[in-house]
Amino acid sequence: MKKALISGITGQDGSFLAELLLAKDYEVHGIVRRASTFNTDRLDPIYADPHEHGTALFLHYGDVTDGASLRHILEKAQPDEIYNLAAQSHVRVSFDQAEYTADVVATGTLRLLEAVRDFARNGRDVRFYQAGSSEMFGAAKPPQGETTPFYPRSPYAASKVAAHWYAVNYREAYGLFICNGILFNHESPRRGETFVTRKITRALTRIKLGLQKKLFLGNLDARRDWGYAGDYVEAMWLMLQQPSPDDYVVATGESYSVREFLEVAASYCGIDWTRCVEMDPRYLRPTEVDFLQGDSSKAQSRLGWKPRVGFEELVRMMVEHDLELARQEKTLWEAGHKVVQRGLSHG
Ligand code: NAP
Ligand code: GDD
Q1: Cis link prior to 143 (omega < 30° from 0)?
Q2: Does 324 reside within a domain?
Q3: Annotated catalytic sites, by residue?
Q4: Which of 192, 224, 232, 347 minimizes the number of CB atoms within 10 Å of its CB?
Q5: pLDDT tens, 253-281?
Q6: What total of structural domains would you count in the chain?
């Protein structure tokens, strides 16, 4: 039985990856941050009480800002594969919390690589996936592929570039099996609610059911190459199954504007978005990434990977999921419960 360790297991991708690996009969270990409230909701469908016999999912308290915790977890879990997904992953927030973002995203990766370097010293064969981002291309002209020079436009993106080069350096310096996945935006009904796609589908479905009146957004002209998270975690796994380590762009090759996402989502909801959407400058970024469109031909030819879910299907899947959530909220509201107003000031 192979063992995998996932940092960031409680996030969108971590939950999809854990499901994929469990389905492939891996023993899966995840690093979870201590929080004052439960932060494992996305793992609910696969979580089993550790007291029960036969569970293959193990969660460990740790943090990528705490190198000692990472070393302890490596010793406990003894993984064959490590997926480094932990991040302060919100680009807008990285302008407010630049040092913290660098500590988690850049230095956090370095801490984990250092721990892995020691772990591998005993002759342990271990493979490492680094969650790189299309944000690293930033202002570079589309289409962006593996040879496109990076031009980061935020503290988050600059930190991901540092993490990318740490990973390349540890591969070359110590002969470690390390892959950088350079993933373009990928979404799902599990997407965090302050990223634009989910913010839109959550708000429009609530507006449709009368639970909310307005949706405030920033730049509607930005273009993104949006895929489905369930497809993208498969590419992560495929990278680590190859005979040698390499870096790969993962993308659909299609790009749409935020406005287009809004139009398609609104049409699925049957509402006129121009009546309920307003612009709020707080959602603009000091430096924006205008146009991302990936060239994933290398991943397609070498890994045999391809995206399965297209743009319209992705939007529909998210709208349908959030309509159901809104219906549940409405039922509670009609039963006298208070409607929750979300704190989206940073979204
Ligand atoms: P996400 O939903 O924001 O999840 C991030 C995960 O990192 C969460 O589990 C979070 O824990 C954890 N985390 C944050 N700070 C940590 C720390 N100090 N120590 C340990 N864990 C920490 O992000 P995602 O969308 O799943 O993305 C996964 C990875 O891929 C991230 O590195 C992201 O930057 C990168 N990426 C994402 C996309 C995309 O479009 N989704 C594209 C390219 C790259 P909590 O649950 O406790 O907050
Ligand atoms: N979040 C947000 N909120 N974005 C908005 C809003 C809003 O109200 N209005 C417009 N946008 C625009 C942003 O300015 C950006 O151009 C685009 O919508 C997408 O924003 P996000 O959904 O926040 O994602 P992102 O592209 O900045 O970053 C995501 O993708 C990266 C990969 O390219 C994150 O998942 C990153 O972690 C990931 O690396």
Answers
A1: yes
A2: no
A3: 133, 135, 156
A4: 192
A5: 999 999 999 999 999 999 999 999 999 99
A6: 1
